C-alpha cells in the first residue's frame, strides 16, 4: 500500500500568509483613514497617498511564467503545481508542440463556471494592444470548460492548439516571420499559423484564488513571434521558470531562448528566476548491464546547467513534473518525494513572497508608517499641553488667573507661528507647481508622439533612412535623453523642496522630517532593460526586406506601447512627487494647527467659566481621557503596521 502525501502545500500556505498579511495592513490603512476623516485631519493630498497605498495592498497579484523550448514539460509542470487540489492531471500534454499561444491560467471571481477564452489571431493586425483586449471580453471566443469530464477538457485544448492555413502574405501582415512557420503540406504558398493569439483559462483553485496567475508559453519560435510576450508579459512576472529537460540538458535552442529572452530578466530585482531540470524520472532507467549513479549524474547536470546559465546552484531545481502530477492523482507520498516538487513549492513560496513583501514593505508600508508616526507625535504634543494646563490649575495658587492669561498669550503666539508656516508652505507649493509645469513639457504626450513618428519614418525610409535597427537605437536614445532632462529638472525641484524643508525645520526648531525621494534613474534603467529585451528582434530587422515592413510595424507598435508605459510612469512619478513632497510638512502643520486652535478654545472656555478649580480639573481630565483613547487607537494601528516575517 502506498502512503498518502504528507507535506502540506508550502506554496499555498505561503501565499495565504502573504494575502492575510496584505489584508491586515489594508484594514489598518482603512481604519486610520477613517480616523483622520473623523478627526477633521484629512487633506486631499494626504488622502491620495493613503489611497494609493491601499491599492498597492489590495490589488497586488503574483505572476508566475513558464518559458522554454516546446516539449520540455511546461504544461505538465502546471499540472503538478495545481494537481494537489484537483487530484487529476488537468491539462493534456503530448509530445510535440501543443501549446500554440500564450495561455494564462487564473481565477475570475466574476465567472460562474470555468471557461476558456480565446482571442482570434486576426486581432494582431489591429492597433489595440492585448492589455486592452483583456478588458473587452466580447472579442474573445468562449468555451465552457467542464472539469469533471476529461473529454470536455481534451476537446477544449484541441481548440486552443488549432492552427490555420493562410498565405504567406496574410501571415506577414499579421506580424509573423514566415521563416519560422511550418509550410502547408497541401497548398503551395500557404503556411500554418496559430488560430489564436492568446488564451485565458479561468478555473477555481485555491492558489489562483489567492491571486496567483500562471502563464504558459509556446516554444521558441512562437516566443519570437509575439513580441508582446517578451516585452510585456515576461518582464512583469514575479517568478520565471525556465524549463529544461534532464534527457537533453541545455541544448542549443534552449540556450538561444535563454540568451534572447530570459537572461536579462534575471537582473531585475523583482523577478525570481529558476531553471527547472524536468523529467529526472528518465534518469532512473535501470540499466542492469551498465549501471549509472543517477544522483551523481544529476548533480553533474545541475552544476553544468548552473554554470552555463550563470545561475546560483540553488536556483537550478531538478524535478519530475510527471511524477509530481501523478503523485497527486494517486496520493502517493513516495512518488511525490521522488518528484522533488516540494523543493520547487518551497522555493517559490519563499522567494516570490519574500520579494513581493519586501517591495511592499520598503516603499509603501514605510510611507504609511511615517504618516501614522506624525499623527502620534501630534497627539503627544497635545498631551504635553493638556498636562501643562492640568498642573497649572492643580497648583491652586492665587495668581492662577494671571497665569491662565499668560498661557493663552503664549499659545496665541504659537498659533501665529503656525499660520506663518502655513503661508511658507503655500508659497512653496506655488514654486513646486512651476517645476510641475516643466515636467509635463519635458516628458509630455506630444514629445512621445514625436519620438514615435520619427522612429517610424526613419525605419521605413529604406535605403535613404537609417534602417530599422538604427531607428530603434535612436528611438531609445531620444527617450533616455528626455528622461535625463527630467532627472535634472527633478534635481532642481529637490533642491527647491530641500530649502523649504530647511526653512520649515528652522522655524519649527525641532524634529527632522525626511524629504520624500524621487527616482527617475530607475526609468532610464527600465528603458535600457526594454532595449535589451528588444535586441533579438532589432538585430533580425537589421536589413529590413520590403515584405517585412508589416512585421516590423507590429513589433514596433508593441515596443512603442511598452516604452509609453515607462515614459508615462516617469511623468506620473515626477508629477506626484511635485504635488506631494510637502505633504509631510503640511500634515504636521495642519495637525499642529488644529491642536493649537483647540487648545486656545479650551483656554478661552476655561477663562470664561468662572468655575471652581475642581470643575476645571475634571474638564481637563476628561480631555486627557479622550486623548488616551486616541493614543491607544493609533498605537494599535502602528503596532499592526509593523513589519512581520512571513517565511
Ligand atoms: N518522463 C517525463 N515526461 C514528461 C515529464 N514532464 C512532461 N513530460 C512529457 O513531455 C511531453 C511534453 O510535455 P508538455 O508539458 O506538453 O511540454 P511543453 O511543450 O513544454 O508544455 C509530454 O509527453 C509529457 O508527458 C516528466 O517529468 N517526465
Ligand atoms: Mg505546453
Write the layout of secondary structure elements.
Blueprint: H1 10-38, H2 44-58, E1 62-67, H3 74-86, E2 103-106, E3 115-120, H4 130-133, E4 141-144, H5 150-160, E5 163-167, H6 168-173, E6 190-194, E7 196-202, H7 206-209, E8 212-216, H8 220-225, H9 227-236, E9 239-245, H10 252-262, E10 272-278, H11 294-309, E11 316-318, H12 321-330, H13 333-339, H14 341-394, H15 400-442, H16 445-460, H17 468-508, H18 521-540, H19 549-580, H20 583-608, H21 613-641
Parallel strand pairs: 1-8, 1-9, 2-7, 9-10, 10-11
Antiparallel strand pairs: 2-8, 3-4, 3-7, 5-6
Helix pairs in contact: 1-2, 1-14, 1-21, 2-14, 3-12, 9-19, 12-13, 14-20, 14-21, 15-17, 15-19, 15-20, 16-17, 16-19, 17-18, 17-19, 18-19
The structure holds guanosine-5'-diphosphate and magnesium ion.
Structure description:
The protein has 647 residues and is an alpha/beta fold. It has two domains: 61-339, Rossmann fold (3-Layer(aba) Sandwich); 412-608. It contains 21 helices and eleven strands. It has helices at 10-38, 44-58, 74-86, 130-133, 150-160, 168-173, 206-209, 220-225, 227-236, 252-262, 294-309, 321-330, 333-339, 341-394, 400-442, 445-460, 468-508, 521-540, 549-580, 583-608, 613-641; strands spanning 62-67, 103-106, 115-120, 141-144, 163-167, 190-194, 196-202, 212-216, 239-245, 272-278, 316-318. A nine-stranded mixed beta sheet has the order 4-3-7-2-8-1-9-10-11, with helices on both faces. A two-stranded antiparallel ribbon has the order 5-6. β10 (272-278), α11 and β11 form a beta-alpha-beta unit. α1 (10-38) runs antiparallel to α21. The protein is elongated. The chain starts with 9 loop residues before the first helix and ends in a 6-residue tail after the last helix. The model has no long low-confidence stretch (mean pLDDT 86). The structure holds guanosine-5'-diphosphate and magnesium ion.
Amino acid at each position: 500500500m502506498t502512503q498518502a502525501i504528507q507535506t502540506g502545500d508550502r506554496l499555498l500556505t505561503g501565499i495565504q500568509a502573504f494575502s492575510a498579511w496584505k489584508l491586515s495592513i489594508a484594514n489598518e490603512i482603512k481604519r486610520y483613514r477613517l480616523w483622520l476623516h473623523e478627526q477633521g485631519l484629512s487633506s486631499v493630498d494626504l488622502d491620495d497617498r493613503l489611497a494609493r497605498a491601499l491599492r498597492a495592498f489590495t490589488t497586488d497579484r503574483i505572476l508566475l511564467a513558464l518559458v522554454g523550448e516546446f516539449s520540455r514539460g511546461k504544461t505538465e509542470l502546471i499540472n503538478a503545481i495545481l494537481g494537489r487540489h484537483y487530484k487529476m492531471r488537468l491539462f493534456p500534454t503530448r509530445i510535440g508542440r501543443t501549446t500554440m499561444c500564450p495561455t494564462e491560467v487564473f481565477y475570475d471571481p466574476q465567472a460562474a463556471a470555468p471557461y476558456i477564452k480565446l482571442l482570434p489571431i486576426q486581432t494582431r493586425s489591429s492597433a489595440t494592444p492585448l492589455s486592452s483586449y483583456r478588458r473587452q471580453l466580447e472579442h474573445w471566443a468562449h468555451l465552457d470548460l467542464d472539469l469533471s469530464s476529461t473529454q470536455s477538457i481534451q476537446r477544449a485544448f484541441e481548440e486552443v492548439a488549432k492552427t490555420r492555413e493562410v498565405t504567406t502574405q496574410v501571415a506577414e501582415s499579421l506580424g509573423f516571420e514566415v521563416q519560422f512557420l511550418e509550410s502547408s503540406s497541401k497548398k503551395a504558398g500557404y503556411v500554418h499559423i496559430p488560430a489564436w493569439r492568446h488564451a485565458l483559462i479561468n478555473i477555481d483553485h485555491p492558489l489562483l484564488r489567492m491571486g496567483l496567475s500562471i502563464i504558459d508559453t509556446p516554444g521558441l519560435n512562437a516566443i519570437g513571434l509575439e513580441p508582446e510576450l517578451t516585452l510585456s508579459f515576461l518582464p512583469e512576472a514575479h517568478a520565471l521558470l525556465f524549463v529544461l529537460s534532464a534527457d537533453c540538458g541545455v541544448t542549443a535552442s534552449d540556450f538561444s531562448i535563454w540568451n534572447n529572452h530570459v537572461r536579462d530578466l534575471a537582473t531585475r530585482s523583482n523577478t525570481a528566476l529558476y531553471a527547472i531540470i524536468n523529467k529526472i524520472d528518465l534518469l532512473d532507467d535501470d540499466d542492469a548491464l551498465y549501471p549509472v549513479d543517477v544522483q551523481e549524474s544529476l548533480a553533474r547536470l545541475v552544476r553544468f546547467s548552473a554554470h552555463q546559465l550563470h545561475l546560483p546552484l540553488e536556483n537550478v531545481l531538478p524535478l519530475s513534473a510527471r511524477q509530481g502530477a501523478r503523485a497527486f492523482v494517486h496520493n502517493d507520498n513516495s512518488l511525490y518525494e521522488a518528484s522533488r516538487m516540494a523543493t520547487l513549492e518551497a522555493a517559490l513560496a519563499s522567494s516570490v513572497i519574500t520579494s513581493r513583501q519586501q517591495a511592499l514593505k520598503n516603499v509603501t508600508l514605510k510611507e504609511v508608517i511615517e504618516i501614522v508616526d506624525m499623527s502620534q507625535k501630534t497627539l503627544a504634543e497635545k498631551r504635553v499641553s493638556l498636562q501643562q494646563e492640568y498642573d497649572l490649575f492643580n497648583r491652586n495658587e492665587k495668581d492662577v488667573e494671571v497665569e491662565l492669561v499668560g498661557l493663552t498669550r503664549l499659545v496665541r503666539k504659537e498659533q501665529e507661528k503656525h499660520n506663518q508656516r502655513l503661508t511658507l508652505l503655500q508659497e512653496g507649493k506655488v514654486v513646486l507647481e512651476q517645476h510641475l509645469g516643466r515636467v509635463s513639457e519635458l516628458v509630455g504626450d506630444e514629445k512621445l508622439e514625436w519620438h514615435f513618428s520619427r522612429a517610424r519614418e526613419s525605419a521605413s525610409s529604406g535605403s535613404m533612412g537609417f534602417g530599422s535597427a538604427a531607428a530603434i537605437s535612436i528611438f531609445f536614445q531620444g527617450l533616455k535623453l528626455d528622461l535625463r532632462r527630467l532627472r535634472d529638472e527633478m534635481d532642481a525641484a529637490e533642491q527647491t523642496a530641500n530649502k523649504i524643508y530647511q526653512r520649515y525645520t528652522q522655524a519649527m526648531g525641532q524634529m527632522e522630517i525626511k524629504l520624500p525621494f524621487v527616482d527617475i534613474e530607475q526609468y532610464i534603467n527600465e528603458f535600457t532593460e526594454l532595449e535589451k529585451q528588444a535586441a533579438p528582434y532589432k538585430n533580425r530587422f537589421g536589413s529590413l526586406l520590403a515584405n517585412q515592413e508589416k512585421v516590423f510595424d507590429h513589433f514596433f507598435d508593441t515596443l512603442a506601447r511598452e516604452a509609453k508605459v515607462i515614459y508615462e510612469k516617469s511623468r506620473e512619478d515626477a508629477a506626484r512627487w511635485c504635488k506631494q513632497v510637502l505633504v509631510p510638512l503640511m500634515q504636521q502643520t495642519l495637525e499642529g494647527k488644529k491642536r493649537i486652535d483647540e487648545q486656545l478654545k479650551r483656554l478661552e472656555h476655561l477663562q470664561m467659566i468662572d468655575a471652581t478649580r475642581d470643575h476645571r480639573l475634571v474638564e481637563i481630565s476628561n480631555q486627557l481621557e479622550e486623548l488616551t483613547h486616541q493614543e491607544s487607537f493609533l498605537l494599535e494601528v502602528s503596532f499592526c503596521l509593523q513589519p512581520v516575517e512571513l517565511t
